[in-house]
Design goal:
Elements: H1 3-22, H2 27-36, H3 38-45, H4 54-62, H5 70-74, H6 85-94, H7 97-111, H8 125-138, H9 140-150, H10 161-165, E1 174-177, H11 192-195, E2 196-199, H12 201-207, H13 216-227
Helix pairs in contact: 1-2, 2-3, 6-7
Bound molecules: zinc ion (2 copies).
One zinc ion binds at residues 115, 137, 176-177, 204, 207-208.
Length: 228
């Protein structure tokens, strides 16, 4: 799925949640998204002057659901590359206080790994799924079971922190969840050995870097392509 398609889907999902949970049905917005695609619609909405555009934004801000707005979806890290700095600034400005919070969180996140979001914060649905994935990846019992079986070498590049850093690196490794897309809102049973793999932080960041999470094999192929 292309990033543009993902953006369109995120808008449609936001429209539905806003309708069901806030009672705001932005039907004209939905029509525009379906007719012109999410990206073109968003770019038009981010232009300085646009009649009627604030209606949905104000309704959602008033309902304290800023994460459902077009502006907040545009500002999701995965979509930012689709927009110009001026468009992103416009989105942040319109969100007021929430825009500032997002900017602070984004700056903070840059210092963390790209897949780490902070639990307890409000995020759009895609990001919430990501938080759940992170919760699985951080679950100490699952982690221990995974590492007992798979050991502490990175499953992608083979890096071992203890070999490289000595005692300081002993038992240091990230744990990656192989099937984030299999997560649904229902119960999900984690199989620590089948579903988790040890990966070094570099490979972990690269697994999560693109729009879709790469498989271990896909990333390994990319890695060996650069060795040649
Ligand atoms: Zn690695
Ligand atoms: Zn991961």
């Amino acid at each position: 799925m292309s990033l543009e398609t993902e953006l369109t889907d995120a808008f449609i999902e936001g429209y539905q949640v806003a309708g069901k949970e806030v009672g705001y049905w932005g039907r004209r917005f939905l029509q525009a998204v379906k007719r012109n695609g999410g990206l073109a619609t968003a770019k038009r909405m981010l232009l300085p002057r646009n009649e009627g555009q604030r209606k949905g934004l104000d309704a959602l801000l008033e309902a304290n659901r800023p994460e459902l707005t077009v502006e907040a979806i545009v500002l999701q890290p995965r979509f930012q590359s689709l927009f110009t700095p001026a468009e992103l600034d416009a989105a942040r400005d319109r969100l007021g206080e929430y825009g500032k919070t997002i900017a602070i969180l984004a700056a903070k996140r840059q210092r963390l790994y790209p897949d780490e979001l902070e639990p307890g914060q409000k995020y759009a649905e895609g990001a919430k799924k990501q938080v759940r994935v992170n919760a699985y990846e951080r679950n100490p019992k699952a982690r221990a079971a995974c590492l007992k079986h798979h050991g502490y070498d990175c499953s992608v590049c083979g890096f071992n922190f203890e070999s490289r850093y000595g005692v300081l690196g002993r038992e240091f490794i990230h744990v990656h969840h192989l099937k984030p897309l299999a997560l649904t809102d229902g119960e999900y049973k984690l199989d620590a050995v089948a579903d988790l793999r040890p990966v070094c932080p570099n490979c972990h960041a690269m697994l999560h870097r693109g729009a879709a999470v790469l498989t271990i094999d896909e990333l390994r192929t990319k890695l060996s392509a650069t060795d040649a």
